[in-house]
């Protein structure tokens, strides 16, 4: 009897190459080259740790294979599309690398992983609205029309950040604050293949950039150099930043079931972001601002926002006009001539007492978005703020995660 294994694979058409799965895998079964991410069937233990952090679900791909015919990684690296399920003529027998049909324990684990949310292992806030995901894929994208492309950064700023408004016309593209959408840039990459999907956070509330309009906005920084500072032209960001009013854009998604905002009265938001990581915070803040303007009573909003200078801080003007009783705003600037470099974690320390008071409140939901490097600094600041105020961050953190109250999206 042939032994059938359940082989874990990555769909190369949907994968956005964000490296989250490779970072998450506890047994180093995932690797990549310049084109594809692949899974070594001999190493994968089917622990499902990588499933929920994947923003697009590309990692949730499976084929039942005769154990001696599992796709080798060298073959997976050459794929442009996932092969279909091959016909299996032999009855299935439990194999070493997994089972052809899941046991109840497997089903429980898969369900837990797939409802745990994306962008981290945290479930969403208990009162979050139901998110729709994967309504449009690369073979049936929604076609949006650009209805605005506004520069957010000052003319003399070192970066070009844009507020881009996409209108979906008659197409239904429901999103919640904190979700992401995928953009398909036209053209081919260096290998002559279509560009892979680029993800961006939605920067507008669920009822539209303009209330009651079927539109949404994005916050996009034009990428002109790589992580090492060498000149590099970002495919997705330059495509988006160059769009003109009336241009058509292919959009996939929406994605994300975890980084969502609570809906219950009295819930507090503690938001920490750097640069364009402000996009989801802008969506959440604007959702709450509209409620505030309508006279609804809300929990607290506390925002820590880091940028190089006021001229580089997306939405600086509108943010500074928000009333103090609506939001407790803390802006950190790192490159203002004549002033010391300040990061969000410095302000978190300075406001340690108020931060700890919010963390202590079981109605507080924490959101962290932006540069990967900020994560460590923020955790250290939380540790200090908690220690100085009778809390233990190391004990609190896992509780917050479990309760859907701590959400991190950094790149
Ligand atoms: P940036 O302008 O390079 O940096 C923003 C600020 O963060 C600067 O003041 C910078 O200071 C500071 N910073 C640098 N390292 C830090 C650290 N270790 N701790 C705390 N602050 C630090 O930021 P950006 O280019 O806009 O990058 C934003 C990030 O958000 C990107 O990684 C992007 O992928 C991610 N993101 C974007 C979206 C979106 O929808 N567009 C959504 C989610 C996440 P310096 O003066 O030292 O540089």
Fold blueprint:
Elements: E1 4-9, H1 20-24, E2 30-32, E3 37-39, E4 61-66, H2 73-76, H3 104-115, E5 142-151, E6 161-167, E7 180-184, E8 198-201, E9 215-221, H4 235-241, E10 248-255, E11 268-274, H5 279-293, E12 301-307, H6 316-320, E13 328-333, H7 344-350, H8 352-360, E14 364-370, H9 374-388, H10 393-402, E15 406-410
Parallel strand pairs: 11-12, 11-14, 12-13, 14-15
Antiparallel strand pairs: 1-4, 2-3, 5-6, 5-10, 6-9, 7-8, 7-10
Helix pairs in contact: 7-9, 8-9
The helical percent reads 10-25%
Number of alpha- plus pi-helical segments? 10
Order of strands, main sheet, comes to 8-7-10-5-6-9
pLDDT < 50 stretches = 91-120
Please state the second-level CATH architecture of the largest domain. Answer: 3-Layer(aba) Sandwich
Radius of gyration from the CA trace? Answer: 22 Å
Structural class: alpha/beta
Ligands (ions, cofactors included): NADP nicotinamide-adenine-dinucleotide phosphate
Major sheet attributes = 6 strands, antiparallel
Mean pLDDT, to the nearest integer, reads 90
- Number of E-state strands: 15
Gross morphology: globular
CATH superfamily of the largest domain: Nucleotide-binding domain of ferredoxin-NADP reductase (FNR) module
**C-alpha termini separation:** 47 Å
As for the number of domains, it is: 3
- Give the SSE order as H and E letters: EHEEEHHEEEEEHEEHEHEHHEHHE
- Percentage of residues in strands: 15-25%
The name of the CATH topology of the largest domain is: Rossmann fold
CATH class categorisation of the largest domain: Alpha Beta
């Amino acid at each position: 009897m042939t032994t059938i294994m359940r082989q874990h694979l990555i769909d190369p058409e949907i994968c956005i190459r964000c490296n989250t799965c490779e970072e998450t895998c506890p047994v180093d079964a995932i690797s990549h080259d310049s084109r594809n991410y692949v899974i070594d069937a001999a190493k994968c233990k089917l622990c499902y740790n990588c499933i929920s952090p994947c923003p697009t679900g590309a990692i949730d791909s499976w084929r039942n294979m005769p154990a001696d015919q599992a796709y080798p990684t060298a073959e997976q690296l050459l794929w442009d599309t996932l092969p279909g399920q091959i016909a299996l003529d032999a009855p299935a027998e439990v194999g070493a690398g997994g089972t052809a049909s899941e046991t109840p324990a497997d089903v429980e684990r898969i369900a837990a992983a797939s409802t745990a949310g994306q962008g981290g292992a945290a479930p969403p806030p208990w009162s979050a609205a139901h998110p729709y995901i994967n309504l449009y894929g690369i073979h049936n994208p929604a076609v949006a029309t650009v209805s605005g492309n506004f520069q957010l950064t000052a003319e003399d700023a070192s970066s070009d950040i844009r507020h881009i408004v996409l209108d979906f016309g008659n197409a239904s593209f429901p999103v919640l604050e904190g979700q992401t959408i995928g953009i398909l840039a036209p053209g081919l990459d260096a290998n002559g293949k279509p560009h892979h999907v680029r993800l961006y956070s939605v920067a507008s509330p669920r009822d539209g950039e303009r209330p009651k309009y079927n539109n949404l906005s994005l916050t996009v920084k034009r990428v002109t150099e790589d992580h090492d500072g060498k000149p590099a032209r970002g495919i997705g960001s330059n495509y988006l930043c160059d769009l003109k009013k009336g241009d058509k854009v292919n959009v996939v998604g929406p994605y994300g079931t975890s980084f969502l905002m609570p809906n219950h009265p009295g819930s507090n938001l503690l938001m920490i972001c750097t640069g364009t990581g402000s996009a989801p915070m802008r969506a959440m803040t604007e959702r709450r601002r509209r409620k505030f303007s309508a006279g609804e009573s809300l929990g607290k909003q506390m925002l820590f926002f880091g940028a190089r200078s006021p001229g580089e801080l997306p939405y600086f003007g509108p943010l500074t006009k928000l009333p103090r009783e609506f939001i407790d705003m803390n802006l950190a600037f790192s490159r203002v001539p004549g002033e010391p470099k300040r990061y969000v974690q410095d302000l978190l320390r300075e406001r340690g007492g108020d931060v700890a008071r919010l963390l202590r409140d079981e109605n507080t939901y924490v959101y962290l978005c932006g540069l990967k490097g900020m994560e460590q600094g923020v955790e250290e600041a939380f540790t200090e703020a908690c220690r100085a105020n009778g809390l233990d961050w190391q004990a609190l953190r896992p509780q917050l995660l479990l309760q859907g109250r701590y959400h991190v999206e950094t790149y």
